[in-house]
Amino acid sequence: MSTTQTKRPRGRPSAFDYEDALEKALKIFWLRGYEGASMAELTKAMGINRPSIYAAYGNKEELFSKVLRRYMAGPVAYVAEAMHEPTAKQVAEKFLTKSAEFLSNQYNPRGCMIAIGTLFSGEGCEQVQQELTAYRQGYEKALRERFDLAKSKNDLPQSVNTTTLAKYIATVHQGMSVQAISGASREELLAVVEQALSNWPVNN
Amino acid sequence: MSTTQTKRPRGRPSAFDYEDALEKALKIFWLRGYEGASMAELTKAMGINRPSIYAAYGNKEELFSKVLRRYMAGPVAYVAEAMHEPTAKQVAEKFLTKSAEFLSNQYNPRGCMIAIGTLFSGEGCEQVQQELTAYRQGYEKALRERFDLAKSKNDLPQSVNTTTLAKYIATVHQGMSVQAISGASREELLAVVEQALSNWPVNN
DNA sequence: TTATTAATGTACCGTTCGTTACATAAATAC
DNA sequence: GTATTTATGTAACGAACGGTACATTAATAA
To answer: Nearest CA of chain B to the CA of A35: how many Å?
Structure first.
């Protein structure tokens, strides 16, 4: 037999699915931000009583951290995927175009949790802010490294400053999240992307 | 005599200066955001007891509203001024370059209150969100109208979509605020501005 | 069966939130 | 002077915050 008997753990079994509940917490944090999401609202959305949340995920900060990991692996997984496009220009196009679609997806809350999450906040959110800053710097760095690779393959002119180019693409992406929250449509976001990429550096 | 006797009002005189205290509240809201700024912190910074704040400015939401007006008239007055530059390109250059300097001014809190304020928030902040959205749409509209004027004077090609161009400039500006909060330096911001404007539409 | 383990639901903890009642103090009006 | 007006400082309000103690329930182990 190839069926592996999964032995049940010792005590009372969980009444909720770990990942499902995390997904529901994600929706709340995404809509409200870290501070704007209250444990009461999270509890209600997750369908779990508070002590079970703390037992399973830790405190609010740790729950948010786990939510961020799920967010990266799910809704914004397209970012990492875009890096695999064959050319630097296609990477940028894919990244921004997919973002425009993502940000105007009617089933998502507006804006990207990582791009524009917890920019201003009260005292005691320093760790959350740092974590989000690290994520932001992370995808900007991924862009830069991808552009460095392109440069080494003559896919980008040697004159290009990859740090600046990556920061520019990240800046447009972050601005697009603000635009999405402020009411921009998919068409408008795509038009901005086209404008933003119309200055792409090319070999002569 | 040309000196006009300013007659003192009836009751006990205020122990604080209205605009000075508003300036101190501005610093707190700018640093913390609307929700992150507590009345306790505001009270302490303004040097006024709470009932006096409520009497002079109304509740927290109204205080924030008055702070926004002061913010527009002071720290970000350069935005309206930039519109008066002689050409559309100079308008965009001035707007973004001044923003880069503003956002990296060591004496300011990071980020622009209006560009990226209260993007995510808990229940009960709808009015503040709407007000900030209106301000954001306001300066984007000012850019568009300035570009329309430029177009009518052949300062911009007739093929230009001014709505898109204005939205693109606003998007870069908003992204720059995120970058500033995430640690970008003045030099980096200025490099992004240069990159962002390298595709400026010109008559052939 | 009995012991052990772990998750559950209830009910509450202390703190902080925005806001306000109220008595007092300091000015003008008469 | 006395009355009136307005701002002040103290002190507290009810509600919401993040977090937890504790008894109970439901599973496995022996």
So the answer is: 7
CB < 8 Å & 24+ apart, contacts of B94-99: B95/B143, B95/B169, B95/B173, B96/B169, B96/B172, B96/B173, B96/B176, B96/B193, B96/B196, B96/B197, B97/B190, B97/B193, B99/B173, B99/B176, B99/B189, B99/B193
Q: Is the CB of B154 under 7 A from strand C?
A: no
User: Which residue ranges make up each domain of chain B?
Assistant: 18-72, 77-197
Instruction: Measure Cα distances from A181 to A30, A51, A98, A176, B174 in Å.
Output: 12, 34, 17, 9, 12
Q: Is the CB of A124 under 7 A from strand C?
A: no
**Domain B77-197 sits in CATH 3.40.1010.10:** no
pLDDT tens-digit series, residues B1-42: 334 456 778 889 999 999 999 999 999 999 999 999 999 999
Q: Is the ipTM of this complex over 0.85?
A: yes
- Nearest residue (Cα to C1') for D24? A12
Q: Could you give the CA distance from residue B47 to residue B45 in angstroms, rounded to a whole number?
A: 5
At the top level of CATH, the class of A18-72 is mainly alpha
Q: Is domain A76-197 annotated with CATH 3.30.300.30?
A: no
User: Could you tell me the mean pLDDT of each successive run of 10 residues in chain A, 204 residues long?
Assistant: 59 95 98 98 98 98 98 98 98 98 98 98 96 98 98 96 98 99 98 95 71
Interface test with A, best of B120, B156, B190 (most A CBs within 10 A): B120
Q: Does B77 touch chain A (CB under 8 A)?
A: no
Residue window 24-63, chain B: list those with CB within 8 Å of chain A. 31-38
- On the 0-12 / 13-18 / 19+ scale of CB atoms within 10 A, A1 is exposed
Asked if the Cβ of residue A40 lies within 7 A of any atom of strand D, the reply is yes
d(CA B86, CA B108): 29
- CB of B44 nearer than 7 A to strand C: no
Q: In which residue are the tokens 């300035």 written?
A: B146
Whether B196 and chain A come into contact, CB under 8 Å, resolves to yes
E strands in chain B: none
Sign of CA dihedral B156, B157, B162, B167: negative
Report the candidate in A33, A27, A30 with the shortest Cα–Cα distance to residue A119.
Answer: A33
